[in-house]
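Tokens as discussed.
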């Protein structure tokens, strides 16, 4: 079955409204009507799956009111991304079997928050400050001694871990430790999904009679977890792979969207690539070819300086990552293009029961 119209309850203006929330009761009735109108049954339980992985489509990232809005260079990045993403989900509801959604889930004292650090004068470190191993060794930054009763270890232990942590980050070459504004705190409004995406996910679940899978990440106080699969620095000798899921599913495909293309999306897809490359080499091509990345449903982190420029701009890092994924064989596609026009997808959908 081809593209569907947008449902009557959908309003594209809601993509820019912090206050918008899904009305589950109305969506349930709308889903029943949709199934009858288009003669749809529940999710196909066959061997072939088309799964959609949504990364951190949460309020704090998706609106200017959020504490860490992913505006991209356009200044409206995540809000426009979510409008396109919701419309993609509605138009292709018959093709999408499963939806998985990650959720950045933080607590007040974590290694990347101002609460964790003080400077040489005993003052909190400001957001968007970069901390390195040398910064800590020189005394310019040190763990906040007020955390002593939080079972994180003694002050000396935290100091040693902080140095080791930053050294490992710098060795990995992906990121240096950036102090972020408080965001996605558990139980806060900013932790919740953007309403227009919450609505689309719930409608999909009710129409297809399948559960959305929710994947929390990021609540360990002593490490960052940009990726849904593992922390940036493992505290264990054995790699700490979390939320392990089969991507792509055996015989199926995975479509990926979300925020931010320069950080959590980037790290998650890089880990998917690592998982694929841990398999026998003869399987690489087929698995990489089974990944589709919605480049118009994600934006890079930028920090405006208030003067028309940026204090920080990670667009180049996001673009370099996408070029690397394409070289591996993943497909960079647009949500606004029919799925049937994506590379190899017409054949795949023809076999999709």
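Sequence:
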């Amino acid at each position: 079955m081809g593209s569907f119209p947008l449902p009557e309850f959908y309003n594209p203006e809601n993509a820019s409204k912090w206050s918008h929330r899904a009305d589950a009761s109305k969506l349930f009735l709308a889903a029943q009507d949709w199934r009858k109108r288009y003669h749809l049954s529940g999710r196909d339980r066959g061997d072939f799956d088309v799964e959609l992985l949504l990364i951190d489509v949460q309020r704090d990232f998706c609106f200017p009111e959020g504490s860490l809005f992913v505006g991209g260079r356009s200044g409206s990045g995540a809000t426009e991304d979510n409008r396109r993403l919701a419309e993609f989900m509605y138009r292709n509801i018959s093709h999408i079997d499963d939806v998985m959604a990650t959720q950045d889930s933080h607590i007040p004292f974590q290694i990347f928050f101002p609460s964790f650090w003080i400077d040489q004068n005993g003052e909190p470190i400001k957001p968007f400050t970069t901390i390195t191993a040398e910064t800590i060794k020189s005394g310019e930054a040190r763990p906040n001694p007020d955390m002593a009763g939080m079972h994180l270890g003694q002050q000396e232990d935290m100091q040693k871990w902080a140095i080791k942590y930053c050294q490992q980050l710098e060795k990995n070459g992906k990121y240096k430790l950036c102090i972020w504004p408080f965001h996605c705190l558990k139980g806060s409004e900013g932790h919740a999904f953007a309403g227009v995406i919450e609505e689309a996910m719930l409608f999909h679940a009710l129409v297809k009679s399948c559960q959305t899978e929710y994947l929390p990440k990021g609540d360990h106080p002593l490490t960052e977890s940009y990726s849904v699969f593992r922390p940036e620095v493992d505290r264990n000798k054995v790699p700490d792979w979390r939320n392990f899921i089969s991507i792509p599913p055996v015989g199926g495909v995975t479509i990926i969207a979300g925020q931010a293309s320069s950080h959590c999306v980037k790290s998650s897809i890089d880990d998917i690539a690592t998982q694929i490359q841990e398999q026998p080499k003869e399987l690489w091509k087929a698995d990489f070819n089974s990944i589709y990345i919605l480049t118009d449903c994600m934006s890079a982190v930028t920090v405006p300086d208030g003067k028309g420029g940026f204090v920080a701009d990670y667009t180049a890092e996001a673009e370099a990552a996408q070029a690397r994924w394409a070289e591996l064989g993943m497909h960079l596609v647009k949500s606004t293009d029919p799925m049937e026009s994506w590379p190899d997808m017409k054949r795949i959908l023809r076999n999709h029961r």
